[in-house]
Amino acid sequence: MQQETSAIWLALEMVLTGEHDLIEIVGLSLQVSLTATTLACAIGLPVGALLAILRFPGRGPLLVLVNALMGLPPVVVGLLVYLALSRSGPLGFLGLLYTPSAMIIAQTILIAPIVAALSRQVLEDLHGEYADQFRSFGLGPIQTISALLWDGRYALLTVALAGFGRAVAEVGAVIIVGGNIDHLTRVMTTAIALETSKGNLALALALGIVLLSLALIVNALVYGLRLTATRAAYA
C-alpha cells in the first residue's frame, strides 16, 4: 500500500511540474489525435451531409454499413493498416509503418465512420425541419449542405469532440501500427500499458491523470456546446 501511495504522490508531482517524458508523450498523443480528428471530420462531415439530404438507390444498405463501421474493432483496423503499410504491402514504399503518420491513418479510419454516422443523423433531422423552406428558396444540394452545416455547427462540434475522445483513448490500433517506440510513437494509452507492465506506476498514473482530465474537458465542452445550441435555438 505504501508503494502505491508513493506512486500516486510522484505521479501528481510529475503532472504539476511537467516532467519531460510526460509532456512528450502527451504532446504526441494530442498531435496524432487532433490530426486524425481533423481528417476524419473532413471525410465524415461531407459523407454524413450527402447521406442526410440525398435519396438514391442503395442508400439504406449504405446507412447500415456506415453505422456498422462505427463499431470497428481497433485491433482489426490496426492489422489492416499494418498489412497495407508493411514492406510487402501495397503502400509499403511510403515507409510509414511505425511512424506517427501510420497512427493517424489508423485513428482516422476508426473515427471517420463515427463522424459520418452522427453528423448524418444531426443533419437529417435539420433537413427534415427546413426542407420546405429550402425548396421554396430553390437551393441546390451544395447550398443546402452549407446551410445545414452552419445551422448545425454546435451539434457538429459535439460530434467532432466525440471523435476526438474516441481517438485519444484508443490503444489497439496505434500500438500495432506505431510499435510504441520511445520518443517516436509512444502515446498515452500505449505508454500506460507498457509502464504498468514494467512496474513504473508513477508514470502510468501520471498519464492516467492527464487522460482522465482530457476526458473531463471533452465532456465539459460537449455539455457547454449543447447549452449554447439550446440557447441559440430559443434566441
UniProtKB/TrEMBL annotation:
Gene Ontology annotations for the cellular component aspect, listed alphabetically: plasma membrane
Subcellular locations according to the entry: Cell membrane
Membrane-related topology note: Multi-pass membrane protein
Keyword flag RNA-binding: no
CDD domains documented for this protein: TM_PBP2
Coiled coil: none
Family: Belongs to the binding-protein-dependent transport system permease family.
Protein's name according to its UniProt entry: Tungstate transport system permease protein
Organism of this sequence: Poseidonocella pacifica
